[in-house]
Specification:
122 residues, mainly alpha, two-stranded antiparallel sheet, 4 helices, globular
């Protein structure tokens, strides 16, 4: 049985069999299509997703023109959680420029965030 190393939505590594990965893709895209009230993905589109998720490389991308804009929930809150002390605009720029996410989302801490004065080390 071939083991496929991939990641969950939270970034944690998971090892799946080919059949389990195919099942997860089919169920996940079917659920998304039902929720969005749109047509489910075609067999060719599912096969393309399977090829991307089952690639043995540490970094996987898509062809030019097939990129998507990602959106993150509470992005500026997550930046602060990991100890990166930035203002909300800088946090949004990090998500936009480095992680390729849109900057349309703000969370509740954005409205009350007080920037921390950086400690200068000499």
């Amino acid at each position: 049985m071939q083991k496929i190393y991939t990641r969950m939505g939270d970034g944690s590594v998971v090892v799946l069999s080919k059949s389990k990965l195919k099942q997860d893709l089919e169920e996940g895209t079917r659920d998304a299509a039902e929720r969005a009230k749109i047509s489910p993905l075609s067999r060719d589109e599912l096969a393309h997703l399977f090829d991307i998720y089952s690639a043995p490389y540490r970094f996987v991308s898509v062809e030019h023109g097939n990129e998507v804009v990602l959106s993150y929930d509470a992005g500026t809150l997550k930046i602060r959680r990991v100890g990166v002390l930035t203002h909300r605009i800088q946090s949004l720029q990090i998500y936009e420029k480095i992680l390729g996410a849109d900057t349309a989302e703000l969370d509740h801490v954005d409205y009350s965030f007080k920037p921390v004065k950086p400690i200068m080390a000499y």
